[in-house]
Design goal:
The protein is of the alpha/beta class and 224 residues long. It contains 8 helices and 8 strands, in the order ααββαβαβαβαβαββα.
Length: 224
Amino acid sequence: MLLVFCFSVLYFYFCYTYLPVWDFLHYKKGNDIKHIMTFIPDGERETDSIRIRFMMKKDNDSLLVSTAQYAEFSERGYQFVRQDREIIIPGYESPIHDFAIYDAESGEDFKNKMLDHKGPQLVFVIPFLSEVNTNALPDAEACFKWAQKNKIQFWGLTSASLEASNTFKLEHQIDFKLFSADQKMLMTMARYNPTLYLFGGSTVVEKWSGASMPNAQTLNSLIS
């Protein structure tokens, strides 16, 4: 019992610190994020099947009419009040439906630029700036410098506000830009705060927790 308990504690600590041994997340190694986002399984609807009805009113009389009935009641003097939309059959929702990257300062959306990129790119994920393991930041900065030298796109992602991100960069002397992303998305991507991803196009090649960041030699071997 003692051995089982000790093993369980050590296993939990290892998975928490160095990412799970068996990764069942949608952002696991080998997954093509763009494909997952756009793929519609056979038998699933691409969009919702919706019933639209119109609330119409004439004097003290109000009623709901279908699209086919709208013209008839309009000719009888009924006025449009509101439109009601009811989902009859929901469309397929991708397991990854909240993926987003945007510039908090300009509002520019960079999601498609990242997903459509053909070469390698690094994505450094910090779900919460206040809880990040700051020991990983110098290594992240080194990865950014490596990416610059090799002309590889580097994305720093956080859910924090623009003001908080700028303060964080100054405090920790970070040169790479912090883009904004959905908090839930980042928490799904990063079981350890922070987590670094290497993508090949939109496919996950490798990922590391902040406790085991790669060096230049490792990164070179993965893109060669």
